Amino acid sequence: MREHDLDAVLALNNAAGRSILALDASQLRYFYEHAEYFRVAEIDGHLAGFLIALREGGNYESPNYRWFAEHYPQFVYIDRIVIANTYRRHGLGRIFYCDVHSYAEVRVPLLTCEVFLEPRDDVVLLFHGTYGYQEVGQQRMGEHGPKVSLLARDLPSYAYVRDTWLEHGGLPDLPWLAERERPFLHDSTPRRLAGERRP
């Protein structure tokens, strides 16, 4: 994700329909500055889709993120994935999910997300089921908001990575294991390095 992509990402997000909550520019800027995982897909120079995911320990006020924070000490939370209509059925959703899985399994024991149950979309539920996600709860987003299914996928490789690297100095210094480079936050806190344990 690059800063000059922000306008295109915002437009794509807000054209996605009822299944994706709308964003304003400041909300998207929050993701740009704080999301540990924020990747875009390009096809022939055009933005084809994006996925945003966050680690535990953030101050993100999403009720679904907060639910996972209250129930699990470590996780990567998929906040949203959007594929442009023109590029659907190209397998981009599967590519994104494989990529975020690869990112998460060397950092946390759990990958989480939610899917809307109102309106219910059996194709989306089936998609997540085929990737090993299990329902761990349900809730309504606000007093009158839609009901969601809260999903989690165990990442069994994490225990090996934790015991071999994370507890012994961190992940190897390899490009594919590097953390996303994010702008410094307003309080001048530097970004977390790959494998660095949180206080």
Automatic annotation (TrEMBL):
Domain N-acetyltransferase: start-end pairs: 1-156
Q: Which PROSITE patterns did the record assign?
A: GNAT
The organism sits in which domain of life?
Answer: Bacteria
Coiled coil regions in record: none
CDD domains attached to this UniProt entry: NAT_SF (cd04301)
Q: What is this protein called?
A: N-acetyltransferase domain-containing protein
Native organism is Rhodanobacter panaciterrae
Q: What is the lineage of its organism?
A: Bacteria, Pseudomonadati, Pseudomonadota, Gammaproteobacteria, Lysobacterales
